[in-house]
Amino acid sequence: MSLSAGLPVRLLLLLLLLLWSVAPQALPLLTKLGVVSESHILQVVLGCEVHEDNSTSGFWRYGYDGQDHLEFCPKTLNWSAAEPGAWATKVEWDEHKIRAKQNRDYLEKDCPEQLKQLLELGRGVLGQQGPTLVKVTRRWASTGTSLRCQALDFFPQNITMRWLKDNQPLDAKDVNPENVLPNGDETYQGWLTLAVAPGDETRFTCQVEHPGLDQPLTASWEPLQSQAMIIGIISGVTVCAIFLVGILFLILRKRKASGGTMGGYVLTDCE
Q1: Which of 64, 91, 102, 253 lies most in the core, judged by the most C-beta atoms within 10 Å?
Q2: 161 within 8 A of 219, measured Cβ to Cβ
Q3: Is residue 76 a part of any domain in this protein?
Q4: Are both 117 and 168 inside the same structural domain?
């Protein structure tokens, strides 16, 4: 296993160069390698992981001049030599079973406890984060009108988004599948779309559930104030126009009736 292999940042505690536990083994290792006047690099990587099921695992590895050298196996209490030059050290360290048991106890007990304490302290930063914003927008297209629900900046990735019509969940067949993509800052964004009939937009509500939320969030589409004002003005103008047309129709009708009555009179010449 390469020393540069990636490890989960959120569940991993890297303890580098722990002199109180590494030095007793590192110094004899340098002697075994014949380090005298030349400069060399000795790397020590040890740590542990706490998995989702609360199980733990640990690792303890040495590298020499950028290459894997020795690795400790807690199950067998033995060291594994990654190159021929590490074989002599492996044989010697395998004989020290008391030291090997101390190494195992640290990886299986002490290290996980330290990791859990650090995770508890950093829960506000590393813990679950619910969506910071849920919004619904409307879109017009040649194919019809659609609503789009967006949930932003949440972690972890698992999220549930659904549409409600008149506060009742819609059938899954009527809704397009939700899409979730990373933001690039270890958070995610998701969206859900729905085709609706014009004029029914306000009957639909988007509901979002996430482990980082105490209760579901809901959002619905609301016309912008400017749009509402425009619609109000248009409606008012339309009503006024209808009213004026009605008045004009009545005036014309009265004039026509007056003209018919005048036609019944007979005019005579004055003598």
Answers
A1: 64
A2: no
A3: yes
A4: no
